[in-house]
Amino acid sequence: MSLKILHTSDWHLGKVFKETTFELLPIQKQIMDEIVDITRKENPDIVLIAGDIFDTYNPSFEAEKIFYETLSRLSEQNCFVFALAGNHDSPDKLQISKPLIAGKHSIFIKSTAFDESKDIEFENENFKLALENSFLKLHLKNEGTVIALKCLPYLSEVRLGLAGDEYLKKVNELLSIEPQFSCDYFLLTSHLSIAGAQQSGSERIFQIGGIEYIPIDFLPKSAHYIALGHLHRHQKLRNATYSGSIYPFDLAEIEHKKGVSVWENGKPDFIEFNKIPKIRKIEFDSLEDAVKNAPEDEAYYYVLIKNPHAYTTASIDALLKAYRNRLVNWQFYTPDVPEEISIPELHSLNEEEMFIEFYRAKLNKKPSQDILSLFLKTLEEVKNATN
């Protein structure tokens, strides 16, 4: 019994860089074309899209058009396509499209964790799909292979209506369920952060009083392959893989390899994109220096400015004009602060340490002693008011 999987995630279709005039959607469309080309060449049985399809709950018409056209083109490659909602996706919006797709294409969209409708049924000359005990049971007719697939969209405390230990207990329960029917392969796909994985850039999130990572022991060890989304760096943890985002959406992601993960009969692989325009990081002491020394080539740039104090609206306008549509993004920065961090074990941090990590994640620098003192004073006042 053989099985080949192509795994991708974190497309963030329609993402806009508010600080510049850079147009990302045409490049994202090129990447979609390349994913379809890779699928055609690799000929997988299944394509898994592990969340963050769009960048906002209300994507543009053009972003939605690209997504559904890509789904259709992928399904035409004799593979079954599964997509699920990430934290950037609107479950309701994805849910609306399901009746338009069901029964017509070898495509399945999972928008909520508890969408257990009984009418999940599809069959054509290549596949037979049904719901059995909260698993999708997929039969590959040509190979005679039976697959048990667990699809879990983004499991936030808000979406589950639970918090703290109750939230963790429920997530553990959902992730640990194993198929109760005979199958050749057990697969899991979800959109979440696993403790110990590397975060970097635009997906970096910390929640004071909340839970933003899941212990790796929650993942079922018996699964043959676990396809994850949410973290933008391609990486593997045990039997789980993050395919990574399709594009470097943040400065810290420039050096990351971007592509799709492929898994065939226990052998993992990664196919890197070769059509993404080159992006370069360039540093200047001031906005004025960045304008005067703007490169004249056709590469795309992330511009870093070391001096955050000397700038005007006119100098920012001059920066945008100098780089035209080649400026992906720009920002002020503190050179001695690392651009990449690991997910901290938040439960082991005290409130002061947690605030420092949160501040670093948001502003890319440590809080001053005055800010830290103000936070601790406010925290103490809140505690006194609630006691």
What this model shows, in words?
With 387 residues, the protein is an alpha/beta fold. The chain folds into 3 domains: 4-272, Purple Acid Phosphatase, chain A, domain 2; 279-333; 351-385, no CATH class. Helix content is 28%, strand content 25%. The protein is built from 9 helices and 19 strands. The chain has an 8-stranded mixed sheet with strand order 5-6-7-8-9-11-13-12, with no helix packed on it. A 6-stranded mixed sheet has the order 4-3-2-1-14-15. Strands 16-17-18 form a 3-stranded parallel sheet.
Reconstruct the topology from this structure:
Blueprint: E1 4-8, H1 25-42, E2 46-49, H2 61-75, E3 80-84, H3 91-101, E4 107-110, E5 121-123, E6 127-132, E7 135-140, E8 145-152, H4 157-160, H5 164-176, E9 185-191, E10 198-200, E11 225-229, E12 235-237, E13 240-242, E14 259-264, E15 267-272, E16 279-284, H6 287-292, E17 300-305, H7 313-323, E18 327-332, E19 340-342, H8 351-363, H9 369-386
Parallel strand pairs: 1-2, 2-3, 3-4, 8-9, 9-11, 11-13, 16-17, 17-18
Antiparallel strand pairs: 1-14, 5-6, 6-7, 7-8, 10-19, 12-13, 14-15
Q: Could you list some keywords that capture this structure?
A:
alpha/beta; eight-stranded mixed β-sheet; Purple Acid Phosphatase, chain A, domain 2; DNA recombination; DNA exonuclease activity; 25% strand; 19 strands; 3 domains; 387 residues
